[in-house]
Write a structure and sequence with these properties.
The chain is built from ten helices and 13 strands. It has helices at 37-52, 88-95, 106-117, 177-180, 182-194, 200-208, 215-223, 227-251, 267-280, 301-313; strands spanning 2-8, 12-18, 24-31, 57-64, 67-68, 75-78, 83-86, 100-105, 126-131, 135-141, 144-145, 255-259, 291-294. The radius of gyration is 20 Å and the shape is globular. The strands form three sheets. The protein has a five-stranded mixed beta sheet. The protein has a five-stranded mixed beta sheet with strand order 11-10-9-12-13, with helices on both faces. It has a three-stranded antiparallel beta sheet with strand order 5-6-7, with no helix packed on it. Helix 5 (182-194) packs across helix 6 (200-208), helix 7 crosses helix 8 (227-251) and helix 8 packs across helix 9 (267-280). Helices cover 37% and strands 21% of the residues. By secondary structure, the chain is α/β, with parallel strands linked by helices. The two termini are 26 Å apart. The protein binds zinc ion.
């Protein structure tokens, strides 16, 4: 019996027919009709009907950016699609009778997929950080996705690391998103370029690109082991390691999983994160070392996680169950 996962992004709505083992059987995409809740309901209903045509489908899960209530039904706020307190589940249920429907935050859905079918498999406690333009997060504790009392848990990007620090898009200051994101990496690289010395390659690349350092330039220099670009990545890793040490004091995960574009740097990022984590860990020396792993489900994690969460809500396997017997070595 399959489930359907839908991921509403800023530009595209992706939908997939997903097996119990997390495999995608069919994948469809439509443009997002932004700013029009009724049109988005239409697109989701159309995708669910099309993907489920002739199939045994037990549930459909929808993932969207923003705050979703802990009951997986109301979208309080969704920045991409300009919604406020939208009773999305009821609207879908009216149009799709007989189907169990749930709504989840997109980062939580992607993190859940990583826990069930990716780098977090075989653990009970996983913290995921998604390092893109910003810093996203998802927390699994004791085999359950941590949604919080109001549905807003797992917003790791807004963990404060510097009181009175850089202003953040959330309205506060000094959040880890301002020190551990792709945007922060560009800032560090720019500072290193300005200082000369090991920053000379960065400065030259910036001058050749109309005075702008972008992600592609910094990624290429990191790949080439340029000392300036590597120093910028180390600075980023140092901040992320500090944040992980604070998270470990509260949640004590067995693994930290890193996703998003910047995490494709692999061990070049994870090694400094681990070093900084160990240096900042409270009561270090007495705490077993958690794993620091790169995410495995790079594409389509949102649809896979949304489908699996919907299946669980519909009374499928318990939320803590693994997809199949776990081999720790994987
Ligand atoms: Zn913030």
């Amino acid at each position: 019996v399959h489930a359907i996962g839908i991921d509403i992004g800023g530009t595209k709505v992706a939908g997939a027919l997903v097996t119990e083992a997390g495999d995608i059987l069919r994948l469809e995409r439509r443009p997002t009709p932004a700013g029009d809740p009724a049109a988005i309901v239409d697109v989701v209903v159309e995708l669910v009907r099309e993907l489920g045509d002739g199939e045994q489908v037990v549930a459909a899960g929808v993932a969207a950016a923003g705050f979703i209530d802990a009951a997986q039904s109301t979208v309080y706020y969704a920045p991409n699609i300009n919604w406020r307190s939208e009773p999305f589940r009821d609207r879908l249920s009216d149009r799709l009778p007989g189907l169990d429907i749930t709504i989840d935050n997109d980062a939580n859905a992607a993190g859940w997929a990583e826990y069930r079918f990716g780098a977090g498999r075989g653990t009970t406690d996983m913290t995921m950080l998604t390092i893109g333009t910003g810093v996203g997060g998802a927390i699994v504790t004791n085999g359950r996705l941590l949604r919080g009392g109001f549905g807003a848990a797992g917003e790791i990007g807004h963990l404060r690391v510097v009181p009175g620090g850089h202003p953040c898009g959330c309205g506060q200051k000094g959040c880890i998103e301002q020190y551990g994101s792709g945007r922060a990496l560009m800032r560090f690289a720019g500072e290193i370029a300005d200082a000369g010395g090991i920053g000379q390659s960065l400065a030259r690349a910036r001058a050749a690109n109309d005075g702008v350092l972008d992600g592609a330039i910094v990624a290429r220099l990191i790949e080439d082991d340029d000392p300036g670009a590597r120093a910028a990545l180390r600075e980023l890793g140092d901040w992320l390691g500090q944040a992980c040490a604070s998270i470990a004091a509260v949640l004590d995960p067995q693994v930290f999983v890193f996703g998003g574009g910047v995490a494709s740097a692999g061990d070049r990022l994870l090694d400094p994160v681990r070093e900084s984590f160990l240096a900042h860990l409270p009561a270090r020396g007495f705490h077993p070392e958690p794993g620091f792993l790169a995410a495995q489900l790079v594409n389509d994690a949102g649809v896979v996680g949304a489908a699996d969460l919907a299946r669980i809500h519909a009374g499928g396997p318990a939320e803590s169950a693994s997809a199949d017997p776990v081999t720790a070595a994987e």
